[in-house]
């Protein structure tokens, strides 16, 4: 009996822990998995977005589910920066938050490094809402990620 009560207590405690995790995103940020995300509607170039103090990192994307989640934060027909760039070496894409580059959703014929000068990743391009490499100097809205 005592063992069962203990077990129930442990399960109940774990349940509470999950609830607590889910509400730990800062105000205005949305939880997905174990991280928090926020769409910012001012338009800035990629490096400005990445360095803004209210943006821990531009978001990284690691699954279709996460990609769909990010798109749900961005108004339709709105381009938004996320954190991948190939500025160090052409074609070698990295996420600014250091997490492995293990998923892509490029539009067909992208990334094309147009004019030899497209090193930053924008999402929600074309009606397919896929990825495009764009000039990092362009001003766009952006999505950030932070740990809980
Ligand atoms: Ca490039
Ligand atoms: Ca492109």
UniProtKB/TrEMBL annotation:
Q: Does the keyword Magnesium apply?
A: no
List the signal peptide residues: 1-17
Q: Which InterPro entries match?
A: C-type_lectin-like, C-type_lectin-like/link_sf, C-type_lectin/snaclec_domain, C-type_lectin_CS, CTDL_fold
Key word tRNA processing present: no
Superkingdom, taxonomy of origin: Eukaryota
| The entry's keywords | Disulfide bond, Signal
Q: Where is the C-type lectin domain?
A: 32-145
What name appears for this protein in its UniProt entry? C-type lectin domain-containing protein
Organism annotation: Culter alburnus (Topmouth culter)
Taxonomic placement: Eukaryota, Metazoa, Chordata, Craniata, Vertebrata
